[in-house]
Amino acid sequence: MGAGNGVFDMSRIQVVPRPPPGSPRWHRIKSLWTPEAYHGWGLRQRWFEGWYFKMVDAPGDAVMALIPGIFLGERPGEGHAFVQVLDGARGTAEYNRYPLDAFDVSRDGNFWVRVGPNHFSLEDMELDLDGPDGRVRGSLRMGAIRPWPSTFFSPGVMGPYTFAPFMQCYHGVLSLDHEISGCLEVGDKVLDFSGGRGYVERDWGRSFPRAWIWIQTNHFEIPGISLMFSAANVPWLGRSFPGLIAGLLLPGGFYPFTTYNGARIEDLRVDDDGVDICLRRGAYRLEIRADRPEGARLLSPEGRAMEARVVESMTGEVRVRLTRARSGVEETLYCGTGARAGTEVVGDLFP
User: CA 204, CA 217: separation in Å to the nearest integer?
Assistant: First the structure.
C-alpha cells in the first residue's frame, strides 16, 4: 500500500506480458518445444529473454544486428524492455530502453515480439527507433528460413538439455540462414538489404554464463552455407563444464557438433588476433579459425543487471574445414571462408 493512504503503489509490480488462458506453468512447459516462443510466462523477477536478428546486405557493406528483449531484475524498478542496435560496419552499439508495458508477445501459437512501435517475427520486422545515434526506420521481410533441426526429444539446439529445469541460460537457433528483402533508414542513409542474408538466434534464463565464445557467419562464397559455434561455461550440480553447440550447414546436409551428440573440443586457442578451434565427432573433424577485429560493446543480463560485458565484432573472417576419416584416409568435405562474421570472446572458458 502507499504510505498509509490506502492507494496501492503500482511501482512495486513488474508489469509482464499477460499470459494466454490457463496456467502460466503449463504455457512454460509447452514452450519447450518452440524455441522461438516466449518462455517467461508468470515470472516476475530475475529473468531475461532476447532475440538476435542479424542482417547482411548483398554486397556485404551493411552489417547489422537488432536485439529486442525483456529484463526482469530483483526489484521492480529494474525491469524494462529494450531494443539493441549493433552496426557492424561502424562498430557501434545503441541500447534503446522501454517500459515493461511496451513489451508484448504472441499468445496464439505464432511467433512475434513487440517492443514499443517495433515488431519482430520470423517472417518480417517493422522498425521505428529514435536513438542517440539517429533514427532507424523501415521494414524487412525474411524467407526460406532454415532452423536448427528439431525432434520431440531434442527440440532445437539445446537438445535434451532443453528439459533441465535449472539451467542458468538456454539458447535457440531459429534460422541458420535465410533471404532478406526490404530497406532500412539508418540516420541519413537508406540501406537496401534485398538479396542479402540473415540469421536469427535467441537466449533466455536467469543470466548469461560466466564465460563463452561465440562465432557465426553465413556469408560464404556459396549462399546457404552457415556456421554457428558456441562454447560456454555451464553450471551443473554445483560444478561446471564447457558446453558445446556448433553446426555447419552445407548444400549437401547439416553437420552438428554438440555436447549431447558426443562431440568434443580437441583444441581451443584464443589470442588477441583470433580463435583457433578443432572439434571432433566420430569420424568428422571441424576446424575453425576466426579473426577478432575491433567490435562494439553490448549490454547482457548478468543476474541483477544489464551490464556492458560483451564486445561483439561483425566484420571478421572465419576459415572453416570439415573432414571425414575413412579407412585411415582423411577426406575434405568442405573448405571455405565466411565473411562478416560475428565473434564474441567473454571470460576464460578454461580457468
Answer: 22
